[in-house]
Amino acid sequence: MRRVILLALGLIPMQLLAQNSNFTLTGKVGQGGAPAKAYLQYQVGNQIWNDTATLVKGIFKFKGEVQGPTIANLVIDHKGEGLAKLGAAADVAAVILEQGQISLTAKDSVKNAVFTGSKVNEEYALYQALGRTATNKMVDIKAEYLSAPESRRSDKKYQEHMQARADSILAILFIEQREFVKKHPNSYVSLMALSEQVGQNVDLAIVVPFFEKLSASVRNTPEGIQFGKTIEATRNTSIGAIAPFFTQNDVNDKPVSLKDYRGKYVLIDFWASWCGPCRAENPNLVKAYNQFKDKNFTVLGVSLDMPGKKDDWMAAIKKDGLVWTQVSDLKFFENDVARQYNIKSIPQNYLIDPSGKIIAKNLRGEELSKKLAALLN
């Protein structure tokens, strides 16, 4: 059920970038005054902004500069309790900051705000409505699963049934998102919609035609250009493609190249010492490695450990008994190889044949041993 939970929480839009522009956000939520406050949180480049405004008869105003349309969180603290005390029950809404005047009004809660003067926020409101039903259903599935007896939660058939229900909801949502893109080819929101459909198992045959139908003004933004690179990375790491070459330093700071593994079956394993699911999977990798290491198979670990955390990486290698070669540049998800392979979450792995071709992805547990047995026994 881990994938169900992540998907339920993962319908989060991405930031959109363009040229610097000034914005003014004016809102009216109810009639409250001091100590009620409004908080606006957003990011410009590497800087995170946390702006605060006091409500006067429900009215507040923010001004600032962003690099084109940018997602922000707008929080209304009705009782002036302080942002840190609001928790999950906070009255919060997403707003896209863009050049010009943005206005919103709501009778009681910013979650129900109506936007005027901002086409992109009007489009975004339509887009959010598409995902609201799906998100609620996913939350219900998660709650139903967690409330089931442990004996049922551990039953494989029950897990598959719940996953199938979640997958069917997402399938419908993805269709609705693509319909939105078709109707709004000039909207930044359409790029956000497509971004939610690009992951490790993206169907390029579906996504690429929709991306190509976006207007040039959207595709040529920095975010649109990056999206195109993501598509290309996905294409380059699809089953049947030749695995992209890379070179990265090992634990002794000596360069290791994927080219050196030509002629062997090699599993490129993306993991990190801080990643619980990765560490839980490591015993399966150790078992498969020991079973097939003398049959032209090996593993090449690529760690997404964080800057300054080499000791943690080394300790995890020793504790988990990972005797194969490990490489990392200690850049977290900015790891050069991870970016090259479009890694958005871990654990992830790719099985490469002796010619360098990708023949399988994300083999877990006994699946890896079964695949290797079919190839090498």
Q: Any overview of this molecule?
A:
Strand 14 and strand 15 form a beta hairpin. The chain is elongated and about 75 Å long. It has 13 helices and 15 strands. The longest helix is centred in the middle third of the chain and has 29 residues, at about 120-145. Residues about 1-20 have low confidence and may be disordered. The relative contact order is 0.09. The strands form 4 sheets. Strands 13-12-11-14-15 form a 5-stranded mixed β-sheet, with helices on one face. A 4-stranded mixed β-sheet has the order 4-1-7-8, with helices on one face. The protein has a 4-stranded antiparallel β-sheet with strand order 3-2-5-6. It folds into 3 domains: about 20-115, Immunoglobulin-like; about 120-235, no CATH class; about 240-375, Glutaredoxin, CATH 3.40.30.10. It has about 375 residues and is an alpha+beta fold. About 40% of the residues lie in helices and about 25% in strands.
CATH topology of the largest domain: Glutaredoxin
Derived structural class: alpha+beta
Number of helices: 13
Query: How much helicity do the residues have?
Result: 40-55%
* Spatial extent as radius of gyration: 24 Å
Quaternary: single chain
CATH architecture of the largest domain: 3-Layer(aba) Sandwich
What is the succession of H and E elements?
HEEEEEHEEEHHHHHHHEEEHEHEHEEH
Total separate domains: 3
Strand order of the largest sheet: 13-12-11-14-15
Number of extended strands? 15
Described by strand count, sense and barrel closure, the largest sheet is: 5 strands, mixed
What do we call the CATH homologous superfamily of the largest domain? Glutaredoxin
Strand share of the residues? 15-25%
Alpha-carbon distance between the two ends: 33 Å
Pfam families: AhpC-TSA (PF00578), DUF4369 (PF14289)
Protein name: AhpC/TSA family protein
Subcellular location: Cell envelope
Organism: Pedobacter psychroterrae
